[in-house]
Amino acid sequence: MPNFHSLSSISAALKSGATSSKELTQYFLGRISRLNAKLNAYITVCEEAALAQAEQADAQYRQNQAGILTGIPMAHKDIFCTQDVLTTCGSKMLENFVAPYSATVVQKLNSAGMVMLGKTNMDEFAMGSSNESSYFGPVHNPWQLDKVPGGSSGGSAAAVAARLCPAATGTDTGGSIRQPAAFCGITGLKPTYGRVSRYGMVAFASSLDQGGAMTTTAEDAALLLSAMAGFDPLDSTSADPSRKDVQQSDAWLAQVAAEGYRGENRTFSIGLPRQYYTDTIGQAALADMQAVLEKAGHRFVDVDLPHTDAAVSTYYVIAGAEASTNLSRYDGIRFGHRCENPLDLEDLYNRSRSEGFGAEVKRRILTGTYALSVGYYDAYYVKAQKIRRLIADDFSRVFEEVDVLLTPITPGPAFGLEELTADPVAMYNQDKFTVPVSLAGLPAISIPCGQTNGLPLGAQIIGPAFAEQDIVDLAHQFQQLTDWHQQTCQWVED
Amino acid sequence: MSNKSSINVPHLARLARLSLSAEEISAATEDLQQIVDMIDQMQSVDTNGIEPMAHPLDSTQRLRQDIVTEQVNPDNFQKHAPATEDHFYLVPRVVE
User: Burial of A490 by CB count in 10 Å (0-12 exposed, 13-18 middle, 19+ buried)?
Assistant: First the structure.
């Protein structure tokens, strides 16, 4: 089998007839059946349905009706509702939940002809930075099995890194695409809030949640995004298509969807926010990356984002408050886990929720309930919303000066399984470089930029709202000049 | 701003409809104290005169015409409900 790692190379092979969708699907299903037990990256594998989709795709090729992504296998994070296929969100609460409809993202990628191999493991309700809160057990980092893959989209990241699929969807509330992408040495694109529909994506924190792409290259991230994104009347916070920046973004995505991705060799003015360059393990790798980009003609400027230090606190108040509200829907009545023999209605609610939710989800619900409770609402929730504006304003101000920002994405490489589980605050502080972007709703891409002790290190490129093209173009240029994104873990050869 | 003794986990659990064991309450109290200490870092930020931001792009919820756009199919939606009868959800008796 040739090297079927990138969507663009698979697309070319399908177009030329060098392979078929059925052959590719069998290839990835074979890898999943051999390697998933070691990684635990998939919760559900859809063998029969995937092969049926592949046959349809092959028919489309025969009839010359295939698009760029037709017939390419992929996986969905188990947070996206899939009609007729289990959607667990990594929780006992939804252990047996089969959604009555598919998420817009799922429908769009189906329409693009992609083949769904299965649903990937994740932190329970996307709450976690290590994939250890999943009811279905932790995912192992394919680079070193005793390390975490990151979270919450840890299953998607590990599956792409070990080539158990060439691409997967993820969602990012406070870093859940970017951080696992960095820990697993792949590319992760978190689009601008509202760029990708949230319809059918199980809600965690509605003002932060955003679906995106997890791939091996920036080019692939653009390809996948072009099929996922766009206005959706079913999502009340879908980006307003009458905005000028949204129209420009729509035009770029339409071009990528029709003709494939063509990177533009523009030079950028790149800001280095001082507050992000403190004591990270990846400093040397980032300095090398700067040198590569400087040589290619890009210009670097030191900038300030003065409210960065308050972002983790602000994020955990807002995300907790929204989570405690969103998760009130799990009442044991309409869908999801229900306790045995409830004494009365109150007992039904209390026991169904206590049995269905894991420890981290309960912790976030309690934090959110605290922040929203009488006497604390102004001190915590409203205060956090005000700091959120200061953080967003910091970004707006620096984007008057520079095109994009370059930062580390994590304080270090993947940490050990169970290393941080006993210390929630230490776990939350892992998110300090990803949550400011989430609070401001901006797009950011995570790409591999080095290694330390055999583990990948990631860099984050942040852009202004709806400037996905800029961050993808810069990431693509870096990937043309270096081969960090082509470094793979040992499983890939198996 | 916060007073550690003010974190009343049994009260919060009641508000959130969670029943926690004594062991869970003690663990959650300890965790929540650490989390509240962390989020209290916010209090040092001067937010005088700053408008709260509820939505990252400051947009408002889009409204649409109040017209029927889909037919509800209760058989489909209730297929996975724990207990139903004649398209009603069943709960323990609340009125004697």
Answer: exposed
